[in-house]
């Protein structure tokens, strides 16, 4: 039997999240204040997602997303809804550059598994309203459970058991999304950024972790998670240095982990941040050793509204092509526009202008 696979990631693509419209922000606030029911909130979410689908089609987006409109966080909502996990309020948030996030997180309360997860219905809704367009669905990488969840040693005295159960849960999740019709799934992952600078690697050591072993574990988790994926399903990974209210969590190039990221991960594509000096040079791309691995260059920032110069971006693409074939390259924003419901510091029109620019550049570079 011939297996037909979609050609994702596309020459012009995006990371997944979009700025939340005002009507949705107001509805979520009312729901949190118990002024409306969940059913009433869902009606607003449905309406705004349908409006978003139509807008994406209007500007020529090829991979239709729900904008993560039903989520508060890009990762905690999914992780907190796994069996054996819960969402809770912490004493402190995450420390971003000159900013502390909201004080929320996830923790282990039982054996990890994937069951009747609400994100399956989230996917089915966009599937049913996207028409003939390809639907792109995003979930946090399994590494994020390892990196962000507070472990309960009464449940998992050995962290290796937690890792293995996480892998099994994600394997179930991939099959469940596939059975629901998903053919383009993205794993979002900030844990790799802990390897990108000497400062962050020193933090790992201070936590009693060996950076090399930590990297090997990240690689193992990803490759085991996707090893049984259906042949006609595209799974990509977005590697991020943090995105919260237009700020960031970490800096540093890909050099330390380059051989593993570009030569040792069995995903179909990598969405990479390359929008400023914090991301380092393109030289680590020399470790790409597969002709079927797509490299999506995040050269257009999602953090601020100012529009990039088209010729500068085109020159950057050609620079990257010195290390990996132009035919393997694609273009996107460096991250989502709203990794949390708070959103980045730009206007809705800015995000559409940026996606239009990316489309124009892609058509001029690749035809």
TrEMBL record:
<dbReference type="InterPro" id="IPR038071">
    <property type="entry name" value="UROD/MetE-like_sf"/>
</dbReference>
<protein>
    <submittedName>
        <fullName>5-methyltetrahydropteroyltriglutamate--homocysteine S-methyltransferase</fullName>
        <ecNumber>2.1.1.14</ecNumber>
    </submittedName>
</protein>
<dbReference type="GO" id="GO:0003871">
    <property type="term" value="F:5-methyltetrahydropteroyltriglutamate-homocysteine S-methyltransferase activity"/>
</dbReference>
<dbReference type="InterPro" id="IPR002629">
    <property type="entry name" value="Met_Synth_C/arc"/>
</dbReference>
<dbReference type="GO" id="GO:0009086">
    <property type="term" value="P:methionine biosynthetic process"/>
</dbReference>
<keyword id="KW-0808">Transferase</keyword>
<keyword id="KW-0489">Methyltransferase</keyword>
<dbReference type="GO" id="GO:0008270">
    <property type="term" value="F:zinc ion binding"/>
</dbReference>
<dbReference type="GO" id="GO:0032259">
    <property type="term" value="P:methylation"/>
</dbReference>
<dbReference type="Pfam" id="PF01717">
    <property type="entry name" value="Meth_synt_2"/>
</dbReference>
<feature type="domain" description="Cobalamin-independent methionine synthase MetE C-terminal/archaeal">
    <location>
        <begin position="15"/>
        <end position="340"/>
    </location>
</feature>
């Amino acid at each position: 039997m011939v297996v037909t696979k979609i050609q994702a990631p596309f020459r012009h693509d995006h990371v997944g999240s979009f700025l939340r419209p005002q009507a949705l922000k107001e509805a979520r606030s009312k729901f949190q204040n118990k002024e409306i029911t969940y059913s009433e909130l869902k009606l607003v979410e449905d309406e705004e997602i349908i409006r978003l689908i139509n807008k994406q089609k209007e500007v020529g987006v090829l991979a239709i997303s729900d904008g993560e409109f039903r989520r508060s966080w890009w990762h905690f909502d999914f992780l907190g809804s796994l069996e054996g996990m819960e969402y809770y309020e912490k004493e402190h948030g995450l420390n971003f550059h000159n900013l502390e996030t909201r004080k929320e997180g996830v923790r282990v309360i039982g054996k990890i598994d994937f069951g009747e997860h609400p994100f399956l219905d989230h996917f089915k809704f966009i599937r049913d309203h996207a028409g003939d367009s390809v639907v792109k669905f995003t979930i946090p990488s399994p590494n994020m459970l390892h990196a962000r969840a507070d472990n309960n040693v009464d449940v998992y005295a050995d962290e290796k058991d937690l890792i293995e159960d996480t892998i099994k849960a994600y394997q179930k999740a991939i099959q469940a999304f596939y059975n629901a019709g998903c053919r383009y799934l993205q794993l979002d992952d900030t844990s790799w950024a802990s390897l990108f600078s000497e400062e962050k690697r020193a933090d790992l050591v201070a936590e009693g972790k060996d950076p090399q072993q930590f990297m090997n574990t990240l690689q193992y988790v990803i490759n085991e998670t996707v090893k049984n994926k259906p042949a006609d399903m595209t799974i990509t990974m977005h590697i991020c240095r943090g995105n919260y209210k237009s700020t960031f969590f970490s800096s540093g190039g890909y050099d330390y982990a380059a051989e593993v990221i570009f030569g040792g991960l069995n995903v179909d594509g990598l969405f990479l941040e390359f929008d400023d000096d914090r991301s380092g040079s393109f030289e680590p791309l020399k470790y790409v050793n597969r002709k079927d691995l797509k490299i999506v260059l995040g050269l257009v920032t999602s953090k601020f509204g100012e529009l990039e110069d088209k010729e500068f971006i085109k020159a950057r693409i050609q620079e990257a092509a010195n290390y990996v074939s132009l035919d393997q390259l694609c273009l996107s924003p460096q991250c989502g526009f709203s990794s949390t419901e708070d959103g980045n510091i730009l206007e809705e029109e800015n995000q559409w202008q940026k996606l239009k620019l990316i489309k124009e550049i892609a058509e001029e570079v690749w035809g």
